[in-house]
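Researcher: For the record, we're logging two predictions in this thread. I'll number them. Prediction 1 follows.
Model: Prediction 1, sequence and structure:
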Amino acid sequence: MSLPNSMRRNALVLAIFASVTTALIAGVYQLTADNIAHSQQQHLLTLLNQLVPSQQYNNALLSDTVLIDNTDYLHLDKPELAYRARLNQNAVAVIFPVITPNGYSGKIKLLVAINPQGELLGVRVVSHKETAGLGDAIEKHKSDWIDSFNHRSLINTPERAWQVKRDGGEFDQLTGATITPRAVVKAVHNSLLYYQQHKHFLFSSLEKKQP
């Protein structure tokens, strides 16, 4: 076989191999993409149900949403969804993200749940880069510290109290870590301030659906 013919044959083999490989990768992606998306949705629903238990609402929580975009209080990097819980068309809670840029090791993203009366039903950490064994105590499975926000509101907790105790507020520091809880307390307070100003927008479609 001449050299040009050999080169053409090798090029053809490589082209066929590349095409088959690309098709296989695309096929595997197509088969797994739906499973990955479903898994992500289930993880999100599990997190939302930690804040508002499923027996407290009967709407489709993941699809009853409104897009929010606020940099003054929530510090979101991009528009994100807020989830509305309803029981027989009546508003139960809204759950939305808030980010603090002031963590010890960077941004901390939270989910907060607030009822129509402006009371916190719960707070959960979505992501952070805080120090293991210190700042990561903001995670629910590491400590109960995050539960200190439950049932708080702008009415029953005055503005000066929205600080850690070292700064004259009502919230505990974490052992060996003050910057992290300080940042989280401020973010949660900001979420209540945001809710106070935008509650009619957050619950608007819920109110329209009520009989």
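Researcher: Logged. Prediction 2.
Model: Prediction 2, sequence and structure:
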Amino acid sequence: MTKYKYVLVSFKTCPWVQRVAIVLREKNVPFEFRHIDPDNRPDWFLAISPHKKVPVLRIYPQSIFLEQPTSLFESNAIAEYLDETVEPRLSHDDPVWRAVNRAWTDYVPTFASLVTATAYAADEAAYKAAAEKMPAAFAPLEHQLVLINQGPFFNREKYSLVDAAYAPFLQRYFFLDRIKPLGVIDQFPWVKAWAQALMERPSTHSFPEAEFEAMYRANLKRRKVWLSQFIPDVAAAAE
């Protein structure tokens, strides 16, 4: 039993929150979600999140629950804290490979921005421009996975912090591909196999997958992006 109680402050469909939740589940750490409205962020949250963003992990000592909790922000910092303090370790034992893992985790924001850009396109031209840039996100990962030459995960048989970091954005690629087929991942068979292995991992999912995909689609409809015209009308969901 952990000596702390963990509360993960969240927008429901935030991929960076999902990353932290995956790490917690991989370590079998009990935690609670506290979902907040991204359009009405409460004062208590603004006071503990310098960037005014989620995730924030609230850490309460179990023995004295009324003591002021510690609040950690930034998904990478939270993931590394959890990996340093809770077994099993998801980081690589070898220092060189540990550095390789950190470097590829550092690539996540670049990957995420390219892979999900079509979701924010305001018109068809912007959508097509975003789709054309998408292969550039996958190509470096394909090269790295070919070098490793085994699977199913980034560190071969052992699930890692790298897997946890990429899973939310690979999931969103599949969501976008099912709204309007992109076919980009089919050009990168090693990345596709890796992504499919991550989608089959129970830790990837904070909600039943169909429910979560419906929430994601509802958010696109609410934002009235160009892609939303291809989504049947659904009730808007909170992020």
